[in-house]
Amino acid sequence: MKFKRILLKLSGESLMGKQGYGIDSQRLTDYAEDIAHICDKGVQVAIVIGGGNIFRGLSGASKGFDRYKGDQMGMLATVINSLALSSAIENRGRKCRVLTAIRMEPIGELYTKSKAIEALERGEVVICSAGTGNPYFTTDTGSSLRGIELETDVMLKGTRVDGIYTADPEKDPSATKFDDITYNEIYNRGLKVMDLTATTMCMENNLPIIVFNMDVPGNLIKVIDGEKIGTYVHN
Hints:
The chain has helices at about 25-40, 55-60, 65-90, 115-120, 140-150, 185-190, 195-205, 220-225, and strands spanning about 5-10, 45-50, 95-100, 110, 125-130, 155-160, 165, 175-180, 180, 210-215, 230-235. It is of the alpha/beta class.
């Protein structure tokens, strides 16, 4: 087994499935199945999930919302997704704990590093919600921060594409995929893997990333088993 403790970053948009909004119950079930499966292998799993299927602060700001309040709305959207995912994981028979970066008991306990690590070491899945608790930071930055704080071996960034390409493969059919790439090369090529704050944090703290397609059931298990799927990002 390659990894003892991972930070799994999930896209809020992916939770929409084919319905184009909200939370698709089949997608949630697929995610929970794969997460429970890797827990059964003894991997400690911390999760950060976005909120773009419900509300995104930046797009809200472009529609007239105050950016500060828009980001707060986005943080709350991540809590809704975290509760939904925790319910699906518990239905699969695994204990799951939702920790929030903003105090909101009894919905979730306030996040602390020690609380999260104790739960991980007991074999519970830990979902870190509400981003960093601050506006102007994305959930990518939130996942980088939690991955570093919780001393994870890797960040697994589950997206809708199967890795990092020279250009957007949905727009440029000639785009080619990287099997692995360094952080410096991402900067030099101007590739949009995560926002710059998140990428810089991972680079400076030597946290590698694997970008892969989470929307294919079983892919998360393949990554954990060491199969060469997705793109490996490292120093």
